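Two folds, back to back.
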Amino acid sequence: MESRTVEPPAKSMDRDLLLTDRRDEAEVAERAWDLLGTLYSRRRFILGVCVLVGVAAVVITLLMPNQYRAETRVLQPEGGSLGLGGLLQSVAPGAASLLGGEAGGFTRYLAILDARTMMDTIVEEYDLISVYDLDLDDPETPTRARAELRDRATFEVSLDYDYLAVQVLDISPDRAASIANFFVNELNRRHVELTSASARQNREFVEARLRIAEGEMDSTLRALQAFQEENGVLELETQVEAFLGSVAVVQARVAEAEIQYRALARQLGESNPQVETARSVRNAARAEVDRLLGGGESVMPVALADMPALSRTYALLRQELLIQSEILTVIRPLFEQAQLEEQRAMDAVQVLDPAVAPVKKAAPRRSLLCILAVTSAFLLACAYVLGSHWLRRNGPEVRRRLQEAGTSP
């Protein structure tokens, strides 16, 4: 009998998978060669399309006018701008936070450069509506001119060297440089105008507050002077101390005179001349005490009973005087710095590099445009060839399925 070898199931499955993979690879290779063959058979068409598009791209790019980019660079004024927030921050740290932080860097410059009024001024100055060949009768023409100018103007801030670059693209190198420089001139004019107005408003505000504080200080001084003249008080604390010392001395004299009088009266009797003299001395000492307590002393010409009210009024006046003095201590430096800031606001932006007419063109990049056009044409031609080949091969089947899908309920 013949013997038969039985393969394990696992090895049989591996062999089947391997055969399937090989068949799939063969089919993929066959399809790839079929596509390459199709492209090769239509190579003249593809090459013709590429040549035609390449020639058209060369002609079109040669007809496109050269664009020139002019650039100017500006710096901020030395020292920058403080503003009221900066003044408060330098004198009273933390007070400026109540007003909000001030935008720093070139934000202010960028806002001025990109403003509608700036664009309109340049469009009118250089008659850009005619330069851009726009319709004068179209009501949207000013908007389109501004949009065109914004597309051609670039404002970039260098973070490494801290300068602002103004770039303008135009078909005329001289006009490109002139517009770039005009941007900077207008920036300078409007920056000075706005900054001067802001600094002047800050100075006027601080000056008005200073005048109010000085008026309140003067009123307080007049009230204190009237109080002193009316009550004979110059320095209440010093006068009270001296007054109490005088009262103590006179009270001691009264006590001494009283003791002497009592002692002599017991020894000599009330009718004795010495006793009468001692009585007169005691009475004189008592009268002196009454005179002092009644406000008859030049040191304190105010009765003792009126002292509390007098002290309260005097303390309120002194408190108001100290308050106004502290306010003036803060406002006077603010006013001086506001005056300096108003003078410094006239500083113009500093032009680092004025724009000059460029020699080399910035656009169009004709070689790159031609390469992109030919590459796009090649890809589109290949797609057309492969698509038409697929339709020729599968067109009847596709039409049949479409008809079946259209007639099915």
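---
second:
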Amino acid sequence: DIRPYRVGFSEADLTELRNRVNATRWPDKETVDDLSQGVPLVPLQELARYWGADYDWRRVEARLSALPNFVMTIDGLDIHFVHVKSKHPDALPLVMTHGWPASVIERMKTVDPLVNPTAHGASAADAFDVVIPSLPGFGFSGKPTTTGWGPPRIASAWVELMQRLGYTKYVAQGYDWGGIVMDELALLAPDGLLAIHTSMPGAVPADVSKALASGGPPPPGLSDEEMRQFEKLKNLFGKNVFYAGEMATRNQTLTGIADSPVGLAAWLIDLGDGNGKPAPTIFAAMHRPRDADNPYALSRDDVLDNITLYWLTNTGVSSGRIYWENKKGFFDVKGVTIPVAVTVFPGELYQAPRSWVERAYPKLIYYNTVAKGAHFPAWEEPLLFAAELRNAFRSVR
């Protein structure tokens, strides 16, 4: 049932995309000098000019095609996945799950450091076999035509995927929606799952979560660090998750992003911090190219690679349905009891205090705070991210 998958789009598809980008009808310019009204007009027009004239999709298509791509039907739905085996014996199988608005493209930079660690200054004993599925409704995976494909069902599908690939023991990693799928996978505790790693842990205590939901004061007894994270989450929920609310309640209304590539681009990159400041990665990449001082920051091409995949697969609306399907709080404690590893990145939506993480994950095997990386660390800092996974899972090999 494991079938090879060929990545490829016709020249007609790319021509239509360029034509639609170049024919965009633009809104009026915003009336402020910050991001408080959303993606500003001028940088979006600059991105569109590049996208419609000079951007080369075939470059990233070739990189995708160079990886072993497959499709497997699980629970009636085609699940696409990249599967790269290490040349090193006893490599540890690893399934990695992306989030929104990302895709398997987000994880491509990490593949070689993980499967071929000796080429990156690490030990052969730290090698992984890597499996990267596309979430249902995302990228090359099938689009569910019925309800029910929320994080628990996706986690069950990943168990089936790893079993059919013949892996009797493995580890798993995810953040954003991938982190929520990780918690659900851990709750299943299938035979063979040794541990999970996340950088967006479900670790916010129930009393803190309740205070955030009600808009009330923080619960008593929080430490200084816990108070800082409470205020950060309060700002996040109060000012910067309205896009999530739209997808969680009225996803089908976003029909326009299936018709306009620039509309899709604006929707996918509008990740300001809610205070009129740029998000640390996605928006900045529109006008801050990668350079020698920042070799793994997102480039303009990185951002357009991902957006173009969403456009060519027409998954702008279908990918958002995971918000509608989800029934649990993003950061709430889920009751995980298997071994868990956590890395704290400075640009993540919140920096989970160790005190919260230890309570949420009683079998915490690794906790580390690093100096670089944000919400998409595998995309932004692939070498650091790969090193974190080696360290995180070394004790369970």
